[in-house]
Hints:
Structural class: alpha+beta
Number of helices: 13
Oligomer: single chain
Radius of gyration: 26 Å
CATH topology of the largest domain: BirA Bifunctional Protein, domain 2
Shape: elongated
Strand order of the largest sheet: 6-10-11-16-15-14-13-12
CATH class of the largest domain: Alpha Beta
Order of helices and strands: EEEHEEHHHEEEEHEEHHHEHHEEEHHEH
Helix content: 25-40%
Bound molecules: 4-amino-1,4-dioxobutan-2-aminium adenosine-5'-monophosphate, magnesium ion
Largest sheet: 8 strands, mixed
CATH architecture of the largest domain: 2-Layer Sandwich
Number of strands: 16
Distance between the termini: 33 Å
Amino acid sequence: MDFCYIEDIGKHEGEKVTLKGWLYNKRSKGKIHFLLVRDGTGIIQCVLTKGEVADNIFNTSDELTQESSLEVTGTVRQDQRAPGGYELNLSDLKIIQIAQDYPITPKPHGTTFLFDHRHLYLRSRRPHAILKVRNELIWAIRNYFYKNKFVLIDTPLLTGSVGETTSTLFETQYLNEGKAYLAQTGQLYLEAAIAAFGKVYCFGPTFRAEKSKTRRHLTEFWMVEAEEAFYDNDDNMDLQEDFLIFIVNWILEKCQEELKELERDISPLEKVKKPFYRISYDEAVEKLKKAGSKIEWGTDFGGEDETILTKMFDRPVFVYNYPKKARAFYMKPHPTRDDVVLCADLLAPEGYGEIIGGSQRNDDYDSLVQRIKEENLPLDAYKWFLDLRKYGSVPHSGFGLGVERTLTWICGLSHIRESIPFPRTIYRLYP
Ligand code: 4AD
Ligand code: MG
């Protein structure tokens, strides 16, 4: 390779190096041109001085427009005042392509405009920082499960049985086999895999035809799901607590620069320590009513309710045992109460709300059949799933963490669309 990356520039102090990238910005002070060059790994100021380079090279830089691609060669110089701590004193400059009028200029633009140009907007500092954190978040997640000996089980994205609820399904005709749905979850398949591997996880895109326009919903989002044989609902919460602390610490360690770029106040993240708060759904409803919410026992929390609730706590909070009628068919009924199920949502602080949904699973054949019927789901489609309750059924639990919800909170963003490279929402299928 005949060039070096900006992130490695510190290893080459005093040496002559070549960088390849794009022009982010430029300014001029008569005989000196300052070119801000980025290459994906960083941004560096390059200095072109008249008289130190051939005139034709000095003049070339006049032609350079924002986002033109180029190759620069120069000597690395340490400079405390420079953004990354280094500058490049140029001896050569080659244009690869002169960019046409680039639509995203340094002046402020509206959100719709920026997301209509998401294919270009990715190059700007803010999305760049967020997606670097996303990269680390995903590494942290995979690392955690690998270290804790969970086996990765890739679950299908085209499914015959409804995973969560019929209200948000994307449907398609599957050759001659009838209807298929895009996966809302990989959970049912993980439940099969625990009897083979004990502790498993899956990680992939999931799909929900969310017809509401909120700052928390995407129609395509990434979910990591874990499933554990012989874990009850409490063991499941302990695991989630450990998992979340691990990933938050990882980001705090690896993403200092990015969080700074995003002006994220990290003190709430530093408070993510054991133990998280744990309150029952009943208690949560009481607290909400006292705070003026119109919530009625039996309904799910709206985004606003979660915001109010999480602002009461300075750390993540589990809300456990939701009403049966507000939850999916597969959750285990409470042993002594008819109206709630053994489950928990983990709500992120600072008003962010649910980032994890989890539960103990119904491991009893007859009661599961009854719940499938109550929800008007076709028993036939669950024949294989019910088999799992016939051949060595065990107590088990699991959970799913939404990557974009988690990243939105960690980065302190106000809308989920910023947390994924190409967001899919109710009104957006392009770019
Ligand atoms: O609470 P949910 O629906 O749970 C499940 O899908 C279970 N099968 C998980 C399991 O137990 N294996 O979704 C889990 C998480 C939510 O807490 C949220 O973080 C995220 O997925 N999520 C969404 N993220 C973005 N846009 C949406 N429309 C989302 N719906 C759920
Ligand atoms: Mg949920």
